[in-house]
Amino acid sequence: MKLLLAPMATLSHEALRRAIYRHGGCDEYYTEMINAASLVNGGKFEKFYILSGPEPEKIVWQLTGENADKLAHAASIVKEKGGLGIDINMGCSAPEIYKHGAGIAWMMKPQTETREMLRKVRSCIGNLRFSAKIRLGDEDFTEESLFSFIDMLIEEGITRIVIHPRTRKEKYSRPPRWNFIKKIVDHIKNSTNNISIIGNGCVSDKNILNALYDEVPEMDGVMIGRAAVQKPWIFSVLSDSYKTNFVIDLYKEAELFTSDLLQYQPKEFYETRSKRFFSFFLDNFMYAHYLRTKILNTSDRETQLLSLQEYFQKMPEERFCTVGGRDVS
Question: What average pLDDT does the structure give for the chain?
Answer without folding.
Answer: 94
